[in-house]
Amino acid sequence: RSIIEQSGSNIVVSIHMNWYQDSGVNGPVALFMPGSDAGERLAGAVQTSLNETLYTSGTPRSQNLYILRSGNQPCVLVECGYISNWEEERKLNQPDYQQRVAKAIAAGINEYFSKYAA
Fold it and tell me: pTM (2 decimals)?
């Protein structure tokens, strides 16, 4: 938490892989802190970019997670996919897919800054 608070950053992006007991669940998702308008806009921009790049249809979700409430800047936690889904885990292990995910996240961040940063 102190690293985030002392960073002087404009945003926080935390990148993870998801797991769920139902192995049929898949797709990336961007999470934001409930009540954070800026976090919701950041998550929306990242989710839209992930959907367009990876041909998915996820929607950003609010969730009260420690990382999302650590600091005053907008924060998003990006779950890149579900390692509990064998097909998605296979894709997540491929360097070209990893690059697509990373570029989609970066494009979403750029979109956020171009629309909302003053």
Answer: 0.93
